[in-house]
What we know:
Layout: H1 14-24, H2 30-34, E1 36-37, E2 43-44, E3 66-72, H3 76-88, E4 93-98, H4 104-107, E5 117-122, H5 127-137, E6 142-144, H6 148-155, H7 162-175, E7 180-183, H8 184-190, H9 194-212, E8 220-226, H10 230-250, E9 259-264, H11 276-291, E10 295-297, H12 310-326, H13 340-362, H14 366-372, H15 374-391, H16 439-451
Parallel strand pairs: 3-4, 3-10, 4-5, 5-6, 7-8, 8-9, 9-10
Antiparallel strand pairs: 1-2
Helix pairs in contact: 5-7, 8-9, 9-10, 9-13, 10-11, 10-13, 11-12
Amino acid sequence: MNTPLFDNFLKTTPAAWKNKIQVDLRGADYNDTLLWRTQEGIVVKPFYTAEDRTNLKIENPKTEFNICETIFIDDEKIANSLAINALKRGANSIQFIAKKTFDYRKLLGNINVKSVFIYFKFSFLDDSFQLEISKFINSDKTYFQTDIIGNLAETGNWFFNLKEDFIKLERIQRNTTNSIAVSADLYQNCGATITQQLAYTLAHANEYLNKYGSNVAKKITFSFSVGSNYFFEIAKLKAFRILWSLVIKEYEAEDLEAHLFVQPSLRNKTIYDYNVNLLRTTSECMSAILGGANTISNVSYDAIFHKSNEFGNRISRNQLLIFQQESSLQKGKNVAEGSYYIESITEQLAENALTLFKQIEKSGGFLKQLKSGIIQKKIKESAKKEENGFLEKEVILLGTNSLQNKEEKMQQALELYPFVKQRNIKTIVSPLTRNRLSESLEKERLNAEKGS
Length: 452
């Protein structure tokens, strides 16, 4: 007779565990000593049991995650060469970023556009041009990361004006698939809490649903950034799938899984002791995989201060290949399912974000709150708290605000300006600004280098 192994052990209740811990604390208060309260208002306990199980049913995508290479289009021939090289070396998707129209035939030459996942992210709005590309490729693996609301939030202006932007996007989404993206990465890189990121992304997407109707739900994708709060970032992506499913159900839209394009955050990246960025992106890519990202585009360890280079791109791509091919995370991407801890924080994040989302909708929606400055004010407050935590060393970035190498010099290594640039343009709303936690401290160290 075979007896299951764990049947030989007595079950211990959570109350018994807590009593044992209280004894071991020798008089110290359990709540004050061992409970961690996050900026989201979530209480993290020192242990979790089956009683914390939530029975969440949101699963990761059934397909493998895509390994993406991000390429800026300065010269079509060079961009094409970089894309072909990346595809030969293990990537199966490409994100092209452009500031102006380009020769797409030259750009896509010798690339099998029917089998490769291609993402286009433009900092301009040209409906005729996008429709030309879509017709030329004619593949449901092509994604246009067009986000007129995200552009308003980040630049402070529409591409043209409210009416014309929505008309142009209407024409794009009516004649293409995968035609709208919601820039959730903006909120993360500006310093929003995870709860804010989820709620603002949901409210942001809801503006498109309100404008174009339920049929547009299947054409919307989401661009997320993940930070180094490992378990919470896994839970963030899982929570968003739950929230998106709830919203589209209200529109009686087809129940489709959210398509998540994910990159590591730049907010916690540093120019000093920059090799630590490799550790940060490793953790962040794991969060993206276990959280259920469809496509992951890694960030090079030196991306904030070096021009794009073959070595940095190869290392960042190989990080994902190691996860996929050597660590076999393409087979084990569901290992986070059943974790009492992750399920608990996933549920709490989803509940908190849903409450905030409802408040936004009750107050007139995302665009109204953006125009009134409420969204910007809330994110600025959250970012300030995090920045104060960094300066007070409650938030640690190794090699930057802790364990500094005093001998390290970076002044001559900067090929790119790594700080927020001042914008002196008239805007109709206050723009959200992407910034890194370590900028003020790095400026001080660079100035000290000049004086030494």
